Amino acid sequence: MPSSTLTTKAKTSLTLSDAAKDIFRAVYQSEQREKNDEDQQEAKIKVNDIISKMSFFYEKIRNAVDYKEEHLLRKNAIERILKRLLMMRHENAEEISQTLLIELIRAAYLANDIVPEKKVGEIAKIIERFLKLRRLILAAGKKDHKEIEEIKNWLANLTATSIEESLDDHQVEQAIGKHMFDIISKNIIVIF
User: Fold this and answer.
1) Whole-number Å distance between alpha carbons of 109 and 73
2) Residues 6+ apart with CB under 8 A from 27
3) What is the pTM of this model?
4) Running along the chain, 192 residues long, what does each successive block of 10 average in pLDDT?
5) CA Rg value for the chain
């Protein structure tokens, strides 16, 4: 990693704070991971461009009608796809994972021919974990229809959030958020 001391033309040294070092470290590590991913010659998921364009336009129209914050668009798409697949009685986590990734690529939430095929297995593990939890919760005691739907929606949301986190490296945003919290929390007095 580059030096944490900067030297200006006037030969004065500036030392970065620990917070700035953490943010630069997160950015550097993220860039290194991207380079390593590009260097590896592993199989990637590729979808048809024509179908991708149709799916992309459908998602754009849907997002215009059903407006959400920009950073939630992909998570909400994951949740919608999961709910649809589960409603259609898909139970195989591997199959759900592959279908989910293909649909996300078609809708341009993920880049085409970039996502490694091994991601199917990683996402399948997350889905399997939540499917087991869903079965256990729904099997425990009697529940009315409304309560069952609330549980299913809650678990779909948790699953989508977990999948979204596994698809993208949020290390830089987390480092920035942590240090913003540290700065703000020093200046806030909580009164109970």
Assistant:
1) 8
2) 172
3) 0.64
4) 56 71 75 64 69 67 63 86 91 93 88 87 95 88 86 93 84 78 80 74
5) 21
